[in-house]
Specification:
By secondary structure, the protein is α/β, with parallel strands linked by helices. It is built from 15 helices and 23 strands. Strands 6-5-4-3-2-1-22-23 form an eight-stranded mixed β-sheet. Strands 7-8-9-10-11-20-21 form a seven-stranded mixed β-sheet, covered by helices on one side.
Length: about 525
């Protein structure tokens, strides 16, 4: 009975953990890495066709984004998730595949002009569609026996529509172990969805730590914060541009803007236009309007019972086509623009930033975590200019952050969630956090709750019966492509210097040789120098 940590180990994205028990291989999450890598992740130690099940905590790409690649490589078994996660993955994985294909096509055009090699997308839209055929929807708080002596239970994680913590119960060699995967634990008192469900039992816990080293602080009312930003910006004649995750965050913002409009809180700009410019966000918004009653909080259910759509309102424009997107920036009327991606790494938001970052009258509002190395993080950290579409764009717009709207629990919320387990867990594994954050939160768990906690690295393996690490991986720092290229050039140059030094030794060795041979040797050296002395 063994855990192997693969992704999101001392990193925030790329969640992936392997359970080996009862002769079965079970993968919990299979996410893409986003932003700058800190460490090189190990490969999944078993082949895709030998994986017997995938358990998916939620639809975000850093948890689900490599599933189509797994399927393309031969995985054919069930993928267990909630119904809401299944529906959201249906659009998110297709969208991710479209991005993979488009980027590969662009790189191949570039490579063809340069005489380079073709690039193959990580996976295709067909791979994403094939993946969806494997999903099996589960309800919260029900036990599902997926194999002999292995059952699973989904708990509401309160992070995203359908998000889950997953309790895996395994009986092997007459020993029973309960392993709890937190997934992403949600913030509290957020619109639309319920607060995180607190677990009551677990022998081992794998817990995220995105905000494990900080507190959200005293929360100013979301509506008040957003109203003030919109009022101030529209008064200046500018646009409010919100890089927003297409699923989850966009719908919460629409919920808040509906309240602002309903109560006429923005003065002098009656019925101001709001644009959702993301085909993915538009599809997700329709799912959030569907009757998925199991996943909504009481306030949202009350609105739906009264026939009120909680996230739609007058003068809301859902932009799907490229032409619709372009028209937004041609229209000079002050407006609110919500566009993906939330970290500004791809998608239409980059066009809106190009058109608004340099404008002193506009405001860029960040409403979610920005991974180190992403464009969003650079802007928040005070970059004076950023590069977009091979053009340097000055940052003159007002930059604001509504941190409390984060979908992640902070340090104390995580500790409270973990501390609710009745019988103290045997060990807590901390993942899904920044390099130093994982370690600091593990220390907080030990100091505050008195639990044995550790932050594993990618490749570390732990025996759940012997209760010890059986493998400790070599820690390999990731190298940026620019640095990698620079180091490669340096290595080649160093080899050239070494060759030159060897040449001097050969010359010294030939001292006293025949004049005819020395003249021929000299001619060859001079010929080589003439060739490269440019």
């Amino acid at each position: 009975m063994k855990l192997t940590f693969i992704g999101a180990a001392h990193e925030v994205t790329g969640s992936c953990t392997l359970i080996e028990a009862c002769g079965k291989n079970i993968l919990v999450d299979c996410g893409l890495e986003q932003g700058k890598d800190t460490y090189v992740n190990c490969e999944i130690p078993v082949s895709p066709e030998d994986i017997d099940a995938v358990l998916l905590t939620h639809a975000h790409i850093d948890h689900s984004g490599k599933i189509p690649a797994l399927v393309a490589a031969g995985y054919k078994n069930p993928i267990y998730s909630t119904e809401a996660t299944r529906r959201l993955c249906d659009i998110m994985l297709r969208d991710s595949a479209h991005i993979q294909e488009s980027e590969a096509e662009w790189r191949n055009r570039k490579a063809k002009r340069a005489g380079g090699e073709d690039v193959t997308p990580i996976y295709t839209i067909q791979d994403a569609e094939d993946s969806m055929k494997l999903f099996r929807a589960c309800y919260y708080n029900e036990d599902y026996p997926v194999f002999d002596d292995i059952s699973i239970r989904f708990l509401d994680a309160g992070h995203l529509l359908g998000s889950s913590s997953i309790l895996v119960t395994i009986r092997e060699n007459e020993e029973t172990r309960k392993i709890l995967f937190s997934g992403d634990v949600g913030n509290i008192d957020r619109p639309l969805i319920k607060d995180p469900q607190k677990p009551e039992e677990a022998d081992f816990v794998i817990i995220e730590s995105t905000y494990g080293d900080r507190l959200h602080g005293e929360r100013e009312d979301y509506v008040t914060q957003l109203t003030e930003i919109i009022q101030r910006t529209l008064d200046r004649g500018g646009n409010v541009v919100i890089p927003s995750f297409a699923i989850g965050r966009t719908q919460i913002l629409l919920y808040l803007i509906r309240i602002i409009k309903e109560q006429n809180l923005v003065q002098g700009h009656d019925n101001f236009p709001v644009y959702v410019d993301s085909p993915l966000a538009v599809e997700a918004t329709e799912i959030y309007s569907a009757p998925l009653t199991e996943f909504f909080d009481e306030e949202t259910l009350d609105l739906l019972e009264r026939g009120i759509d909680p996230i739609k309102f007058p003068n809301l424009h859902l932009s799907v086509t490229t032409d619709e997107s372009k028209q937004i920036n041609f229209d000079r009327e002050p407006k609110v623009i919500l566009s993906a991606s939330g970290m500004c790494e791809a998608g239409r938001i980059r066009h809106h930033l190009k058109h608004n970052l340099w404008r002193e009258d506009s405001t860029i509002v960040f409403v979610g975590y920005q991974v180190e190395g992403t464009l969003g993080r650079k802007i928040i950290d005070g970059a004076e200019s950023v590069r977009l579409f091979n053009e340097e764009i000055a940052v003159h717009a007002e930059v604001k952050e509504i941190a409390d709207i984060s979908g992640h629990a902070d340090r104390d919320m995580l500790l409270d969630w973990l501390g609710n387990i009745q019988q103290p867990p045997r060990k807590v594994f901390v993942n899904h956090g920044g390099d130093t954050v994982c370690d600091s939160f593990a220390a907080s768990v030990q100091e505050t709750l008195g639990l044995d906690a550790v932050a594993p690295y990618s490749g570390d393996a732990y025996d759940l019966l012997a209760e010890e690490f059986t493998e400790k991986a070599a820690i390999v720092k990731a190298v940026s492509k620019k640095r990698e290229a620079k180091e490669r050039v340096s290595a080649v140059y160093n080899a050239l210097v070494a060759a030159g030094q060897r040449l001097l030794k050969v010359i010294e060795h030939n001292k006293g040789g025949a004049n005819k041979d020395l003249e021929k040797f000299t001619d060859r050296i001079n010929s080589l120098c003439d060739k490269y002395d440019r």
